[in-house]
């Protein structure tokens, strides 16, 4: 199969795929990094030093703040650097909540697989069976696309967030005018249907947020209830994810939380680039492709529970972890709402990333669930998630020859 590199999907999340700018943001001073672990964990002392150094470097290079939590056999470690609020200077706290963007996809795929385990749908059902006439137009044909293909991004269905008009209104300067607009799933799919498919179903691979909008619609058709209720009843409540929510159209962030910042596409070398507070937004712009809110602790618990088989029977675990990859980057592959990634030291981790306005997140675990990490950066231009992964799982410390911090600029 000739496909685009799947690793691109690791960062091609809802907002990151569309907002490509780097900001001239005010570097915050690195906050002290705290740890929590059992008293007997002295044997693991220093295990997270590389991670601490990398998150501090991410802040020195321009990110407002970074939050990370790791869990291994020695216990739980919390790390933070920078600030949660650039105005007040409040530091990021371990219990802070943030928008997780495309990590929502992992929750949605899990619900679909649970429904399959119950015999209520089949991964090889056509999209047309559940959503008649929805995937039609300009060469799209839901009769030829299966649920499996929308979950592993081999459907060929055009990505709604690649539409120029949508990008301008949602990710560019138009965001400030339209941040509270409500988008329906039907509207999002219709935008995608105005374009030709990227390829014939099953012929290639391309990350498409439209796929998971359709997945959410299928959950609602099968259950007769909002997809968010299925996520809450099947995953959030059983796992006790008290900081995790599906906000619907509510633009507010639950407490405790910090602020989220974006340049709205401003170029990194443009003196006029400004940083905007984008904390409040109507998350229907992402819906089942990226609307959820969570914390580092909850993301760790969910990812570990999923990959160790607590949420799915064996047959569905095999489906979840059957991946698609391409010749361009064999180190990364996409399953059903999860990514398998081989890091620089050879360690394999499973999970997903998520990007939405002002927020970049990652949650991964080893396949056995004995080492997990979740992290968030509250500036959508900042990057650094790949380096955090390599630091935590490979002990790779920051490059001292890294670029100097970007010039400060007030919001």
UniProtKB/TrEMBL annotation:
Highest taxon in the source lineage: Bacteria
InterPro entries documented for this protein: AmpC-like, Beta-lactam-related, Beta-lactam/transpept-like
Keyword vocabulary terms for this entry: Signal
Domain Beta-lactamase-related residues, every copy: 52-379
Span of the signal peptide: 1-30
Protein name listed in UniProt: Peptidase
Taxonomic source organism: Streptomyces thermolilacinus SPC6
